[in-house]
Design goal:
The complex is a heterodimer. Chain A is 57% helix and 15% strand. Chain A starts with a helix and ends with a helix. Chain B is of the alpha+beta class. Chain B is built from 16 helices and 15 strands. The radius of gyration of chain B is 30 Å and the shape is elongated. Chain B starts with a helix and ends with a helix. Classes of the chains: A alpha+beta, B alpha+beta. The interface between A and B is large, with 76 and 71 residues.
Chain lengths: 446, 496
């Protein structure tokens, strides 16, 4: 419930969608209770020209599905970039360039479990479980014919940090973590990666590295990562990786060129903004990192910087494409309803002669339009949500996000979009219907 | 993705089939309309469109929106494609460290060109004056740039591409870069700054004094930071700054950050920990190098911790495209020499980057196709209404001797006229708003990597043709089914 309220209040689109949906539901309920016969008439009218109703509904559905999918991506990225109010993760990375490449000694000063740890971290109450390091190791199973399918990208990390520190892996199977700890060459792979490599859990494979020349490693797959953000990547044990670099130094009697650049990111969990500021300042000002200066960012800020390059295309989708699609939807509805009103002018005049007030006629046309719009929108939202839930999300690679989950809010978005555009589209035709002059219509008929 | 395709396959097949039949019928209808054969006069359809002007206008407006959007989206894809197509110069060979497929991952030692295999050396073109190999050693880094005057929020940093070069003049010849304004890097790559205001800039290095730089917003922080960034500041010697050449795209982006059209020679810009002096700006050339910042190799290596003598790539201009392809292959295959390398022709390298953009292209095309379907449904509503209002007309036409085929053609042409009306305006709107816009995006970029680029969107003939074909499709598919229903009406029944 608290999560629901948080998402509702943090995202204006959810609030607007919910308010519109509730308004439509209440309006229809009142309409049903006050004039059930008019409601029946509205249904009959829609059935009379079933082809038109179906085509309008289809057009609305197609556009709602499109807008929902676009908005899903925008919503997810916005959510990812939103600063959290608690449970911050602080990312320490190289200050002036990307990819960040730090010496392994940097981790010693930031690991709360290490004797060299900066005092500021211990004073802030950080424990070893609040610490994680990432190195990135990439390789191909077929060096002669490298392709996206045979490329594997690993997060190199301490397996014990998976549950406490990795997003969406809080409930990851502890037995698999134990296997990772027991066998250094053990690895976990994402679902898509398993498929593209054509491998199963229990099988072994060898990678020729693309970023650590001559550090070619053999792996045993001990488990699969849950579907979602890790679909195209994997996790390997940092001890295995570090031992390989040490072995290289022993065998070649020289360090690997990337030996002192092996650490890519260091993560620290801090409880609140104040601690973040304090710990961040202490790290950035620490003389220990003078040879390779570091900066501290929240996860959302770091992702924001990565996504800055996409801002124009995302801005186009958000500010032009979505409003234009909604406008097109309103036009389609306006067109269909005004055709209906024009065709039924005689019938509307008869209703007036029978004693129906202009307001009732206005409500009849509005009701028909809202019914088509809201139901089509709701159906489209539900269809989008259900379908992409079943197939594991919208497959669309943006930066490091391989798929996007359609949120359950899509139902409210769909209903609100359908109803909102139906309302905008039918205001003018409904007003025209209300203003039908009986004498003029009958004069024409005569 | 496979599940998605399996589920959608029947729908896609149905839509494809309907499209093919509709397009075929529409082409026949158009041919029928222009040929001197018996047909329902076109004037009849035009008069009807005029009579139902509100419906015609609403449908055409929906078309305008859809076609305008499609044109703008295709212009983005075309611009991105052209950027990567034109970034690779024929004959250029990129030499990376063995195993590396990207400049960011490549780590080459400071070897001289003479250490390359003899065949490769023989293949490299030589510049006539001064005599030298047309080859450069380049160090490429993605640097952190803190956006000045940024609004509150997480987007305060931007990643920009810096390229350090051992010979900027050779690099310019190899990559086909010309200077638009300013000067190339000086031999030392360091500029002495005169202690006067920006307004005096003419001829000698135009200078922004500390106060004017801070006021321009190009530097953030106060005097001490600036003092730390400008060498020799506060001493009797004049302050100096390392020089950079800005790509035209990135100069515009930096300019926009501080409320100007573009940065120019004489401006100072802080990238990473250093404040750089803009010595020149490249001419716009639709290349990914136009999004880069060029500086001396040693300055880039020192500033960004690459280590002096560490390079990302050697780029050489070979005598011809064919020789380049051969040289790259031989260099890649030959692992017996002093060192082994990975090598690509520059065109091959950028083609690989383009291929990583398939996802973005597919997304935009899928969006275009789906909104085309919605557009077709909009036309269908209008045309069905037109037919139901004109049932009697159809009956009369049939009694006058017009055949079912002629009725079908007449209504199809009417639908195509609406599509053409809205579509042409849409193309014009799409051209006006979608051509030549400067946008930021990423080429390559699987898993968060890639090169961030600034490029111009482009509406060319291929974009106009594609949008035009989609317009025709909307008109054809949207008009075909209603036209069939009109064709099937029986004369006597329709007159009742």
């Amino acid at each position: 419930m608290s999560n629901f309220l948080e998402e509702l209040l943090a995202n204006p689109e959810n609030l607007v969608a919910l308010v519109i949906s509730l308004l439509v539901a209440v309006a229809w309920l009142v309409y049903v209770l006050v004039s059930p016969k008019m409601v029946l008439l509205a249904f009959k009218n829609l059935r009379r020209n079933l082809v038109r109703t179906l085509l309008t509904s289809l057009a609305i559905m197609v556009l709602v599905i499109m807008v929902t999918l676009i908005w899903t991506v925008i919503y997810f990225l916005d959510q990812t970039m939103q600063e959290r109010s608690a449970d911050f993760k602080l990312i320490v990375m190289e200050r002036w360039k990307v990819p960040s490449q730090m010496p392994p000694t940097h981790a010693d000063y930031l690991n709360p479990g290490s004797s060299k740890c900066l005092p500021a971290l211990k004073e802030a109450g950080l424990a070893p479980k609040d610490f994680m390091t990432w190195s990135f190791y990439g390789g191909t199973t077929d060096p002669d014919k490298m392709s996206l399918e045979n490329l594997v990208f690993f997060f190199v990390m301490d397996p014990t940090a998976i549950r406490p520190m990795m997003d969406d892996l809080e409930n990851f199977d502890p037995a698999l973590i134990k296997k990772m700890l027991d066998k250094r060459e053990a690895c976990l792979l994402g679902q898509d990666k398993l498929r593209s490599l054509n491998k199963r859990v229990g099988e072994r494979f060898k990678l020729t590295s693309i970023n650590y020349k001559d550090i070619d490693l053999e792996f045993e797959i001990v488990g699969a990562l849950p579907p979602g953000r890790y679909d195209k990547s994997g996790i390997m044990n940092d001890k295995y990786f570090n031992e390989a670099l040490d072995k290289y130094a022993r065998d070649k009697r020289t360090r690997h060129p990337l030996d002192q650049m092996r650490l890519n990111l260091i993560w620290l969990r801090v409880p609140d903004q104040a601690t973040f500021n304090k710990v961040g300042a202490a790290i950035e000002e620490s003389p220990y990192f003078g040879d390779r200066p570091v900066k501290c960012e929240t996860g959302s800020a770091a992702i924001g910087s990565f996504l800055a390059a996409y801002r124009d295309i995302i801005g186009f989708f958000k500010n032009y494409l979505v409003p234009a699609l909604l406008a097109a939807m309103a036009l389609v509805i306006a067109n269909a309803i005004s055709i209906t009103v024009r065709e039924r002018r005689a019938e509307l005049a008869v209703l007036k002669v029978l004693g129906f007030r202009p307001f009732q006629i206005l409500c009849l046309v509005l009701g028909e339009s809202l019914l088509v719009g809201a139901l089509s929108g709701l159906a489209a939202g539900a269809l989008t949500y259900g379908f992409f839930y079943l197939i594991g999300g919208l497959p669309m690679q943006i930066a490091f996000f391989p798929t996007f989950q359609v949120p359950s809010w899509a139902l409210a978005w769909g209903l609100a979009m359908g109803a909102g555009t139906a309302f905008l589209g039918c205001v003018l035709p409904a007003w025209n219907a209300r203003s039908v002059k009986v004498s003029e219509v009958f004069a024409k008929v005569a | 993705m496979i599940v998605l395709l399996i589920v959608l396959a029947p729908v896609i097949l149905l839509v494809l089939l309907a499209s093919v039949v509709s397009v075929g019928a529409s082409l026949v209808a158009l041919a029928h309309a222009v040929l001197p054969v018996a047909k329902v006069p076109l004037k009849y359809n035009l008069r009807n469109l005029q009579n139902r002007w509100l419906t015609t206008l609403a449908t055409a407006l929906a078309f305008t929106i859809v076609v305008g959007l499609v044109t703008a989206m295709l212009a983005f894809v075309r611009g991105l494609d052209r950027l990567t197509e034109t970034s690779g110069m024929p004959g250029n060979v990129m030499i990376l460290s063995d195993g590396a497929v990207d400049e960011t991952m490549s780590n080459l030692p400071n070897a001289s060109i003479e250490e390359l295999p003899g065949d490769m050396q023989a293949a490299i073109q030589r510049a006539p004056q001064p005599k030298r190999f047309l080859a450069t050693k380049e160090v490429y880094v993605v640097a952190v740039y803190t956006v000045p005057n940024a609004a509150d929020g997480p987007h305060k940093r931007r990643y920009v591409q810096m390229r350090g070069l051992d010979d900027v003049h050779a690099a310019a010849l190899i990559h086909g870069i010309e200077l638009d304004r300013g000067q190339w890097l000086s031999p030392s790559g360091v500029r002495e700054l005169a202690n006067k205001s920006a307004g005096d800039a003419e001829g000698s290095p135009p200078v922004l004094g500390p106060s004017s730089v801070a006021a321009s917003g190009m530097l953030f922080g106060e005097g001490p930071l600036l003092a730390a960034c400008l060498l020799n500041h506060g001493t009797s010697a004049r302050p100096t700054a390392k020089e950079v050449i800005l790509g035209s795209g990135i100069a515009k982006t930096f300019g926009m950050d501080v409320g100007r059209d573009t940065l120019g020679p004489g401006d100072l810009v802080k990238i990473g920990p250093v404040t750089w002096y803009v010595a020149g700006v490249m001419k716009e050339n639709n290349s990914s190098y136009g999004s880069e910042i060029w500086a001396m190799d040693t300055h880039v290596q020192g500033t960004f911790g690459r280590g002096l003598g560490s390079y990302s790539s050697f780029v050489a201009r070979t005598k011809s495209e064919r020789i380049g392809v051969k040289a790259a292959k031989e260099l890649k295959d030959n692992r017996s020499g002093l060192r082994s390398y990975n090598a690509f022709t520059e065109q091959e390298y950028f083609a690989k980057l383009t291929s990583a953009n398939v996802g973005m292209r597919v997304t935009i095309i899928v969006i275009a196709v789906i909104i085309t379907i919605a557009g077709a449904l909009g036309v269908m509503i209008t045309m069905f209404a037109a037919i139901s209002q004109r049932t009697k007309d159809i009956g009369v036409l049939r009694l006058l001797g017009f055949t079912r085929f002629q009725i079908l053609c007449s209504f199809l042409v009417e639908s195509l006229v609406i599509a053409a009306l809205g579509g042409l305006i849409g193309l014009a709107v799409g051209y006006a708003f979608g051509d030549g816009r400067i946008v930021n995006s990423i080429v390559g970029g699987q898993g968060g990597g890639g090169k961030s680029v600034v490029f111009r969107t482009m509406v060319d003939l291929s974009v106009l043709m594609s949008a035009g074909i989609l317009t025709f499709l909307m008109g054809a598919v949207g008009g075909f089914i209603p036209a069939i229903s009109a064709m099937r009406l029986r004369p006597l029944e329709s007159l009742r």
